[in-house]
Write a structure and sequence with these properties.
This protein is of the alpha+beta class. A five-stranded antiparallel beta sheet has the order 2-10-4-5-6, with helices on one face. The protein has a three-stranded antiparallel beta sheet with strand order 1-11-3, with no helix packed on it. The longest helix has about 30 residues, at about 780-810.
Length: about 850
């Protein structure tokens, strides 16, 4: 049967009358037909069955198939067929008992169909109505159970003396999983309480299924013991973890085995510099073997954008000095200007010599604009005059320059005879002197002056031109042809720092993330110092601790070492060293540094005596795509939006005077994540151990990537508990995303920040609400993540997050309440109980005072009571 049903359509299939009636009994038929649709028009088998089978046979077949049972997929076709047949009340009446039998246990779609047929058959016999109500209140679907209670209410109001027959359905509804159904059952019980006086025992037996507040209402009306509210089990939570221990930074090594990329980078650079100044011959022998195995792909790169390229370049320059030179100054560019054509047309008088045109000859020269200057060795422009008349056509054209003939044939001039253009030629004669668009322009003018269209057509086609008619005008066409010439162009000089970038093959500043740009400067200045013989004996910036911090006295020791060697430390190295100092002033180290005779030491002394880098303004702006433009969200969200991005905000509040810090490192990042540099953010940790919020701002473009391209993960946030500085909205956004995304290690990290009293919990809650409203993240995984965080000992931090999350997530006036809203408030009520939280939340109080009896309102009331001790 299933095979026949899935066969291609055959017109007048002889098997249809035989097999189609068996579709209701054959195993697998329903599943084979599950894809049949009613909209927009009934598909093949729905239409065929409704058309070929008698209605009674089709309806009987559907009902019998429903009674056999099965899952929703197996019955989908028959439900749709029944809907298509749309039986009248008269047709349904003989099958009423079958529809009643389907109510308690049929699948949801079948039960809804049967319920509709029973409703159409009303009024029912009393016994049938009681059976229907009993069946519907037994079902788990809240919609069907609520319909059963509605029929119950209507029946009691119509025949009060039959109220006792509906006690059992009411008691069944007390145990329903839907709060709305249970609440409605209690309301109806109290509404008709006088009619249930003889059934008090049955009603009281069902009280234990109800929540305490609903059960208390029934107990107060019917007597008996009010149920005691089952408080959530008092949970025990583990304590917050101890403060992390910061390990010393490992020794320099050319073969670092550290897991973190930034640690490997720092160890390699420190070992390279120390080895190059202490024993260059030994270092050269060590690196020579590696250079032999290097395929050298980096040499063909226009830009060096990654640590590996710079390591290879430094290795090659040390092993073979001069093999990796910086780029030379830009040389003049030779290029061919383009050809230019100007068309002039004038009418002549036959039999008379044409008069010379008054004034100088004017012609047009165009080309591409280039930012720079043209050099004096440009070849002067040459103008070739190509002339012909309407009598003879373009084929008879002659060319001249300054009244001297120029060879011309086949539409081009020949400046070098019939030979190919010589290598030292200054003019290109290979281009067409009269291309099609020039001929077309001239012919358009000829037509305006009255030349025969047939002759013009021959000119356009390059065919022989017929002689002119007796009254046809004589028109002269002159083409001013400027052949391409060889020119020299020198681009404008770049600003000093941009020229330095070009020479050292660094990418353009705005095309690379600021933190990565800063690290590239460190590598480039090492290569420059290696070529120039000014490499210092030691790097200043190598960290003292795995947090990335540098001890102030260690910095001064290294400054003294450089001064003793008579070498000035490198600028980017000094800037990185200053940024790695602990926050605050260090007067003792400043006093030592002031005694060192070098410009770098004087700069370091001023930094050590002050408070270090002032915290810049850090933040973020939520944006989305509108048309082809990114616009800010504002306070809410439009009905439809796409392509959400976080725009980093970073503004320097007080310049440091160090250009690489103020203009490179602290440049505001773009909100575009450049995948080409995405993997490089593994070298960023350790750059700013005393200003971790700046790090977070730079990570924002790599946060909401949706699995495409490099994204922020454990490696980027692992240093947060070890580093210093205030945490704000950017870090909060990262932690909120990582928490809901179940990123490995994020919960221990959050707990450690909480133990240090540094967790921006309220900001995390605010950013989490925005992510749930504006991204693909969902509420249920967020609740699961927050539950896991609470169970791990962060219950108080979770409550702080919820305090900011709830007002931003719960529906306002006119907005629809969803199941996830109820789940979020229920979770908050549990957390409030665990933590003993107090203090009214206005949005919760407002929903709690709403008199609508919904599960959401009940949970809001529970949370409000927990927070304030007051009932509503």
């Amino acid at each position: 049967m299933a095979a026949w049903l899935t066969e291609p359509i055959m017109v007048d299939d002889p098997l249809t009358p035989v097999l189609l009636p068996r579709v209701f009994d054959a195993d697998g038929a329903g599943r084979a037909l599950r894809a049949e649709r009613l909209d927009p028009l009934p598909t093949r088998w729905l239409a065929t069955t409704a058309r070929e089978l008698p209605r009674k046979q089709a309806l009987d077949g559907c009902v019998s198939r429903f009674l056999r049972g099965g899952d929703a997929q197996d019955l989908r076709f028959f439900v749709r067929l029944h809907t298509l047949l749309d039986p009248s009340p008269a047709e349904s009446a003989p099958r009423l008992r079958d529809y009643l039998r389907l109510l308690p246990s049929a699948s949801g779609t079948v039960a809804e169909l049967a319920t509709e047929q029973v409703r159409e058959a009303m009024p029912l016999d009393h016994a049938d109505l009681v059976e229907a109500v009993d069946a519907l209140t037994f079902r788990e679907e809240a919609k069907l159970a609520a319909l059963g209670l509605r029929w119950l209410d209507q029946a009691i109001r119509a025949a009060p003396d039959t109220a006792g027959d509906f006690v059992t359905p009411l008691a069944t509804a007390y145990a329903h999983k839907s709060f709305g159904v249970r609440n409605r059952a209690v309301e109806l019980t109290l509404k008709h309480a006088g009619l249930f006086a003889g059934h008090t025992e049955a009603i009281l037996d069902g009280i234990h299924h109800l929540p305490a507040d609903l059960g208390t209402k029934l107990a107060g009306r019917f007597g008996g013991t009010a149920p005691v509210e089952e408080l959530p089990e008092r949970k025990e939570f583990p304590p917050l973890p101890g403060l992390p221990e910061v390990r010393p930074f490992p020794e320099p090594s050319l073969s670092p085995d550290s897991q973190e990329m930034w640690v490997r980078q720092e160890r390699w650079l420190a070992a390279f510099v120390t080895g190059a100044t202490a024993d260059r011959a030994e270092l050269r022998r060590t690196l020579a073997a590696r250079l032999e195995q290097d395929p050298g792909h980096w040499r063909s790169d226009d830009e060096r954008t990654g640590p590996a390229q710079w390591h290879s370049a430094l290795t090659a320059e040390l092993v073979v000095p001069g093999s990796v030179p910086e780029l030379p100054p830009p040389l003049p560019e030779k290029f061919w200007d383009r050809a230019n054509h100007t068309v002039k047309v004038r009418a002549l008088t036959r039999g008379q010599e044409p008069e010379a045109e008054p004034g100088p000859e004017l012609y047009f020269i165009g080309g591409f604009y280039r930012s720079g200057r043209y050099l004096d060795d440009d070849a002067p422009p040459r103008v070739i005059f190509i002339t012909w008349t309407s009598d003879d056509g373009p084929g008879a054209a002659v060319a001249a320059e300054d009244d001297r003939p120029v060879p011309f044939s086949e539409g081009r001039i020949h400046l070098y005879g019939r030979q190919a253009m010589p290598p030292d030629a200054l003019y290109d004669d290979s281009v067409a002197a009269m291309p099609d668009h020039v001929i077309d322009s001239a012919c358009d003018r000829l037509a305006e002056l009255g030349v025969d269209p047939a002759r013009i057509a021959a000119m356009r086609a390059g065919e022989p031109v017929p002689p002119p008619g007796p009254d046809e005008p004589l028109v002269e066409v002159t083409i001013h042809f400027v052949p391409p010439r060889l020119r020299s162009f020198l681009p404008h000089a770049l600003p000093e720092h941009d020229e330095w970038r070009r020479r050292h093959q660094l990418p353009r500043s705005n095309s690379v993330p600021p933190l990565h740009d800063f690290q590239l400067h460190r590598c480039a200045e090492l290569a420059e110092a290696l070529r120039n013989g000014t490499l210092p004996p030691v790097l200043l910036a190598t960290p003292s601790w795995m947090s990335g911090h540098l001890e102030p006295d260690t910095l001064v020791d290294r400054l003294e070492t450089c001064a003793a060697a008579g070498v000035e430390p490198l600028l980017a190295d000094l800037a990185q060293a200053l940024l790695r100092l602990p926050r605050g002033s260090h007067p003792a180290a400043a006093e030592r540094a002031a005694k060192v005779d070098s410009a770098a030491a004087a700069s370091a002394a001023r930094w050590l005596a002050g408070d270090g880098l002032p915290d810049p303004e850090c933040g973020l702006v939520w944006r989305h795509m509108e048309g082809a433009t990114m616009v800010e969200f504002g306070d809410g969200e439009p009905e439809h939006f796409t392509s959400v991005r976080l725009k980093p905000v970073l503004r320097v509040t007080a310049p440091t005077g160090h250009r690489l810090i103020d203009e490179v490192l602290l440049r505001e990042p773009s909100d575009w994540a450049v995948d080409e540099y995405g993997s490089t953010f593994y070298t960023w940790p350790g750059t700013l151990p005393s200003h971790r919020e700046i790090m977070s701002v730079n990570y924002l473009p790599y946060l909401l990537r949706g699995g495409w391209g490099p994204t922020v993960g454990p490696a980027q946030i692992a240093c947060l508990p070890l580093t210093h500085g205030p945490l704000g909205e950017s870090t909060a956004a990262i932690l909120a995303y990582q928490l809901v995304a179940s990123t490995s290690g994020v919960i221990p990290l959050i707990l450690t920040l909480a133990a240090k009293d540094e967790l921006p919990a309220e900001a995390i809650g605010s950013q989490l609400a925005l992510m749930l409203r504006r991204t693909w993240l969902e509420v249920r995984p967020a609740i699961a993540a927050l539950t896991e965080l609470a169970d791990a000992g962060g219950q108080r931090e979770v409550w702080r997050m919820l305090g900011a999350l709830l007002p931003a997530m719960l529906p306002g006036a006119g907005q629809r309440v969803t199941v996830t809203h109820r789940q979020l408030v229920a979770f908050a009520a549990d957390v409030a109980l665990w933590t003993g939280a107090r203090g009214e939340i206005p949005v919760i109080a407002e929903h709690a005072r709403n008199r609508r009896t919904t599960h959401f309102g009940h949970e809001c009331e529970r949370l409000h009571t927990q927070l304030t001790g007051a009932t509503v």
